[in-house]
Design goal:
The chain has 497 residues and is mainly alpha-helical. The chain has one domain (7-491). 63% of the residues lie in helices and 2% in strands. The chain is built from 23 helices and two strands. Strands 1-2 form a two-stranded antiparallel sheet.
């Protein structure tokens, strides 16, 4: 299928998103159309999702290029530069040793079923899907036009989610893979031609995001090396406490610059409730530590399952501002990321969500960088190709993002109330818990002010200066409780019942 742009393709992004919003539940919301409870779900909605994916793969197989599920897996590996462009040979030794698992047959229906069953465990996501269901038939795909584009994006994004799932699982179960991937990706990115093009195709937010994810991967690799040398090596107890909050704050600031205020408020609440704190049996918060098998890292936020649920749906809404958001959402719907358990006593507990999610994000950022750079380099050579794999932005997507943010804000406020009130007697003074939360939030905001965590020159980026100005202005108040109290009233819900 040709990627050459035309007048028709250039205007496609301006057409109503109704023709794209069935794949919203498939390639973008990736099969997450779940209701508030498993008993209340719409079988018809799930059937539509399954039919959309099955049809997309079937039509891609019949297209002139005749793309099978395996072809789409290979395509994703090659975009990520981990497979030889001329042969089905992985360029990373540990991946080549695991080629049977990485190239195993992909059954789209089975994959959809696995992701759907995991998505239904997230009540916050389910509430947004209730809103989608309420839109009715107007949010169905208009099949009159653009079917080829729909089939391509839905099938490619689904296969890409499967690739991220397989690679993330491989990294999680073998730290050696992470070391080899870091070395491989760094070598590709060191090419002068790549570096020159990269600087032109990634904006300030994506450049900061790349840096702030590269650093945790470097630390993960170092931690695994230390543990291999000394099995008694313990993680720094506050590992991830600042870096993760700063990472969330970056996206929250971007939401603010885009006017997505409701989703930004959900992001701030996630920022305040940090991992790596003192052990708190009441909320489940705890110091960071190794997983029982020593292969993963557990980050314990207050109420870990609810925190992971909120983070997941908040980030899904956030990425819809990017043109190729169906592909970007793949990192959130890979089963190795999405299918965390309900409690800490089960396999793949919610405290491991963030480790898997960061690995998937790291892999996706390489994919996104390499894809955009390759497209731009082809344009520089005189070929006319789109810069993005898809351009699914229009007023209906903006409407969806706004509604999603509203749901996320409401549930974030409820999450904060749940953290404050869990295990507490109604007789306990509200002000005592509020004062402690204000102290913690003030500490977080002050730490975010340290902009040296970013790459050299990042402090000159306007949005980064805006964050510094915001913090400096807030801290200039004589009484910290005056400005933190204002933030409190904006971000939190009512007192404990």
């Amino acid at each position: 299928m040709s990627l050459m742009p035309s007048t028709r393709s250039r205007t496609r992004a301006c057409r109503p998103a109704t023709r794209y919003l069935a794949p919203l539940l498939v390639a973008a919301s990736f099969l997450s159309a779940a209701p508030r409870s498993a008993d209340a779900h719409s079988d018809a909605a799930y059937q539509r999702i399954g039919n959309a994916i099955t049809t997309s793969f079937a039509e891609m197989a019949k297209a002139p290029s005749s793309k099978t599920p395996k072809d789409l897996l290979v395509r994703a590996y090659r975009v990520m530069r981990v497979m030889d462009p001329a042969a089905e040979r992985f360029l990373v030794p540990s991946m080549e040793a695991s080629r049977a698992a990485l190239l195993a047959d992909l059954d789209p229906s089975a994959f959809v079923g696995q992701v759907t069953s995991c998505a239904k465990r997230n009540p916050y996501l389910n509430e947004f899907m209730d809103w989608v269901d309420g839109k009715g038939s107007t949010w169905e795909l208009d099949a009159a036009k653009d079917n080829a584009e729909r089939w391509r994006v839905v099938s490619e994004a689904t296969a890409y989610a499967a690739v991220l799932d397989r690679m993330t699982r491989l990294v999680r179960n073998n730290p050696r893979v992470l070391k080899e991937l870091i070395g491989h990706f760094n070598a590709v990115r060191a090419d002068p031609a790549f570096k020159e093009t990269y600087s032109n195709v990634f904006d300030w937010f994506l450049k900061i995001k790349v840096y702030s994810v590269d650093e945790p991967m470097r630390y993960f690799d170092q931690y695994h090396d230390k543990r291999a040398a000394d099995p008694a090596f313990a993680l720094p107890p506050e590992s991830g406490r600042f870096a993760l909050s700063a990472n969330i704050a970056e996206a929250t600031l971007k939401d603010v610059t885009l006017g997505n205020w409701d989703n930004a408020r959900a992001g701030w609440i996630l920022t305040w409730h940090r991992v790596g704190g003192e052990d708190d049996p009441r909320t489940g918060a705890a110091h960071s530590r190794w997983s029982p098998d020593g292969m993963g890292i557990q980050y314990h936020a207050p109420l870990p399952k609810k925190w992971a649920d909120l983070y997941s749906t908040w980030n899904m809404a956030f990425v819809t501002h990017l043109p190729e958001w169906p592909y970007i959402m793949a990192k959130l719907f890979a089963p190795q990321v999405l299918c965390y358990a309900a409690t800490e006593t089960e396999p793949m507990p919610p405290s491991e969500y963030m480790y898997n999610r960061l690995v998937a994000l790291y892999l996706h950022l390489q994919y996104m960088m390499f894809d955009r750079v390759a497209r731009q380099q082809r344009n520089d050579q005189g070929n006319r190709v789109p810069l993005y794999e898809a351009s699914w932005l229009d007023p209906s997507v903006t409407e969806m993002r706004k509604a999603w943010g509203e749901v996320n804000k409401k549930n974030a406020q409820q999450y904060k109330l749940d953290v404050r009130c869990v295990g507490r007697s109604k007789a306990k003074p509200y002000e005592a818990s509020r004062a402690e939360e204000l102290r913690q939030e003030s500490e977080t905001l002050r730490e975010i002010q340290d902009l040296n965590v970013y790459e050299p020159g990042a402090q000159n980026i306007p949005a980064t200066r805006e964050l510094g100005d915001l913090v400096a202005s807030a801290q200039a108040q004589d009484n910290p409780q005056s400005w933190m109290g204002w933030i409190w009233e904006k971000l939190t819900g009512p007192a404990c019942p």
